[in-house]
What does this fold into?
Amino acid sequence: MVKTPKSNTAQTSSTKRPTRTSAPVSFANESNSEDTRWEGPDTVTREREDVEYESDDGLELGKFMQELQTKKTTLLSTAFDNQKKATYDSARKQAKETSQEGLGYLEDLRVMLLKLKKDEIPFKKYSHEVDPLWKNRETSLASLYDLYPSVVDDLFVRRAQVIDDASGMIRINPSKREKALRSFLENARREVDRSRQKEIEATDASKLIKHYKALLFG
It folds into this structure.
């Protein structure tokens, strides 16, 4: 049987079929479970755009976090400055009030010292007023003695007699003498203590007055 050749029509139809410009080709890799595919230029462009978008998002996020941290730092700094200013204002106000109270106290003290100084009696004035009285007393006693010399002499004699009689009574009764001696010593001790206390009070008052005068006129 003789084979007939294929018609030219079949060849022409086969030659007119459009050819593929790019077809996805996949290669199976036996070592990996995933397929490695070849991608076209459009896919690469989209991937680049995605990477750029992700990079822009990261930059925006970093910028936002930086601005947030800056605002937080600014708020903390402002709060600290306000607290420091409030503390300084309170301390300044308290110091001013304390200073004003001290000045008021010194002013009251100055007024009191001026009043005391005004009411103070000078020693010379007092001595000048006492000297005439003392001289008049001596003159009066001398005149009295000239008028009644016997009475004055008898007065001294009688006083000496009374003292002698009292001394004799003490010698006769030792218990009364001991009691009188103790009473005398007790009275003397009280008088000495009272004198010392008055002396201490006078010294303290003098020191206080000198201190106030130093504060006032210093």
